[in-house]
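Everyone, describe these structure tokens:
***
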Amino acid sequence: MVNIHNDQTDLFFDCILALKNREECYKFFEDICTPKEIDSISQRIKVAKMIKEGQVYVKITKETGASTATISRVRRSLDYGNDTYSMVFDRIKK
């Protein structure tokens, strides 16, 4: 397993934390990611939100285009991860 806790990742996260609004986020991520990378990350977040809302895999696949493998991976993260999806979903509700 790759250890992501390092100076390089710290710099990346510091850059993200320096962004002030959604437009800056769009510009920054358009510069550093491919459209497919942004779409993949966005898709996982949408999948997580739908799972947390109790949606079934068939509806999630139809609405997001995610494969069942991606949905299962996100489900594992929700079940055994750091609970950060819940944290950020709670924060954006407020």
Notes: The chain has six helices and no strands. The chain has a mean pLDDT of 96.
